[in-house]
Amino acid sequence: GLILKQDPAPSLIRELRSYILSEYSYITYRPHKLDIQFLKLLQQMVQDETDYHKLITVIDTLEGKYEAENRHTAPLLLARLETMEQVGKQEEAKKVMEQNLTESEVLYYAIEQAKSIGARPRMKALIETGLKLPFPKKDVARLEELLLNMAEEDDDAQQINKLALSRFLDTLDIAYYKKAKRYAGLSWNEQITDALQQLANRTYSIRTQQAIGNIYVLEERKQDLLQLLEETGSIKLLLEFSIHLMPDFSKEISVIYRTLLNQYTQQHLGRTAAVRVREIMHNLHTIGASRLANELIEEYRSRYPERHSLIEELSVFL
Fold first, then answer.
1. pLDDT for position 5
2. Max alpha carbon distance in the chain (Å)?
């Protein structure tokens, strides 16, 4: 590429083209994608119809080899499209794109081409077409993100709400939920119910329970949040969400803390466990439950005098 930018002599271009045409088809170049680099150089050397047809022949040859070796042909398809558009064959390129939209890379290329000429309706139609195809999850996420960006640019509240909620369920990123909530309509309560049901149906994980807890916090469903903490029996969730239930449910929160901490201290020994207990006591002070923290500290000092790590960690509260 650097050589061609220096405006080399025609004889040098001919020699470079001749070298590429004699080398490009060797299999040793394909694992490292050097054949694609050869194609890019040939693209820069296209001056007329003859050069164009030579390059298309090269692409045809490589496609045959790629298919025989079970290699992904999308890079060659993109090279074909770029070459067609480079020589002004936009209509032919359009037909090739439409015939190959099931290739995600071709679809993205078509979307970028539509974006570059400001054809937003076509861009949107391509994205929506892609979302109907059986693409891997990462491609669906990318397409939804593109569509969400377009909806935000158009200030389409209904689409923003729908797509942001879909992205939340896919990523569990609460920022998407907040965005969906900002653009919610009259059916928001139904959407919440449906989202919670989808999360509840998933295999148990702390991330999923955190997502449910975040919904309860944002929707001010304190009773549901309390029930979540009682049922999961997770210290991690308790530390994260208990502050949202104080002081209204201080009694219930104290019971959960005492139960989980007693279980934890009975089942876990050593410095790591002692540090964890200290962190939990610190959290109790933070949420306004200092009385409970002090009671538990005294209990553990009396109950476990032989556990030196625990006694040492708790001494910071004396």
1. 58
2. 93
**Burial of 214 by CB count in 10 Å (0-12 exposed, 13-18 middle, 19+ buried)?**
buried
Q: Which long-range contacts (CB under 8 A, 24 or more apart) does 7-14 make?
A: 13/45
Provide DSSP, 124-175: HHHHHHHHTS---HHHHHHHHHHHHHHHHHHT-HHHHHHHHHHHHHHH--HH
Reference 314, options 287, 288, 284; nearest CA is 284
| CA pair distance 188, 191, nearest whole angstrom | 5
> pLDDT tens digit string along 218-247?
999 999 999 999 999 999 999 999 999 999
> How many angstroms separate the CA atoms of 246 and 232, rounded?
19
Q: Minimal CA–CA distance to 215: which of 232, 199, 239?
A: 199
The helices-and-strands tally (H runs, E runs) of the chain is 19, 0
- 300 neighbors 314 (Cβ within 8 angstroms): yes
User: Residue 276: how many CA atoms within 13 Å on its side-chain side?
Assistant: 15
Q: What is the CA angle 249-253-254, rounded to 5?
A: 120
pLDDT, tens only, 156-202: 999 999 999 999 999 999 999 999 999 999 999 999 999 999 999 99
Give 277 or 21, the one with higher predicted confidence: 277
With residue 317 as reference, give the H or E element that holds it. none
- State the Cα–Cα distance between residues 140 and 114, nearest whole angstrom: 19
Question: Which burial class, exposed, middle or buried, applies to 243 when counting CB atoms under 10 A from its CB (0-12, 13-18, 19+)?
Answer: middle
244: Cα within 13 Å, side-chain hemisphere: 21
